[in-house]
Amino acid sequence: MASVLKVDKLDPQSGTALEIGTSGDTVSIPSGATLDISASTLTPPATMPASSGVNFTALNATNLGSGTVAIARGGTGAATLAAAGLSVAPAFHAYLPSDQAPGDATWAVLSASTELYDSDGCYNTTDYKFTPTTAGKYFIYGQMHMDDASGDNMVLWAMGFKKNTSYVSMTQMDGRGTAIGDAYSFATATVVDMNGSSDYVQLWGYYDGISGSPRFMGGAERCFLGGYKLIGV
């Protein structure tokens, strides 16, 4: 038969230690009751029981002695960047493997048919279009090296990125009225908003010369383009 002991205060009979119950017993605090230890010191067991951390505040992360914190929780654990929403994919980088003859006084798409990487298979090595499958803003970059195989005949040269059929970035060097040249390298970069379905970008180049044999020089270090998705914009 259960009994009720009603007192206002419990003190140990001797010493300063008060023990409640015996090993194996369960001491319960009923629903609606409050155990106030805010003015006391609580010494937890070496192994804490599983419980919700909703009410744990002001935790010092430097005191974590083992385990890992996932990237998704702001740590450096085993979770992937993609799982934490930090992926820059789709991303790609491609280059022109060999010389390309664009023709005089005409724009030509750079035939960058060799990929260094293409995370989501969004770059087409046949039509040289990057068509990302995820909507967002993309950083797009490119470089071209133009040369005239017949000597100093170049007077006007340019390069630029097209989004679909319109230029969104362009750089140009105009030598008309001044000294003509033989070879030049230049680069451009921009941010392009892509719809994740039909939008694409291509890199185009332009050459105008007095005569000669214009060419885009092949090589991974000379003519290339690439891009990746920006995070948080």
Topology (elements, then pairings):
Elements: E1 91-95, E2 106-109, E3 114-118, E4 136-148, E5 154-163, E6 166-174, E7 183-194, E8 201-209, E9 214-216, E10 224-229
Antiparallel strand pairs: 1-3, 1-10, 2-8, 4-7, 4-9, 4-10, 5-6, 5-8
Q: Fill in the CATH topology of the domain at 91-229.
A: Jelly Rolls
Global mean pLDDT: 84
Strand content: 25-35%
Query: Into which percent range does the helicity of residues fall?
Result: under 10%
Question: What this model shows, in words?
Answer:
With 233 residues, the protein is mostly beta strands. The protein has a domain at 91-229: Sandwich (Jelly Rolls). The protein has strands spanning 91-95, 106-109, 114-118, 136-148, 154-163, 166-174, 183-194, 201-209, 214-216, 224-229. The radius of gyration is 34 Å and the shape is rod-shaped. 21% of the residues are buried.
What's the quick description here?
The chain is an all-beta fold and 233 residues long. It contains no helices and ten strands. It has a domain at 91-229: Jelly Rolls, CATH 2.60.120.
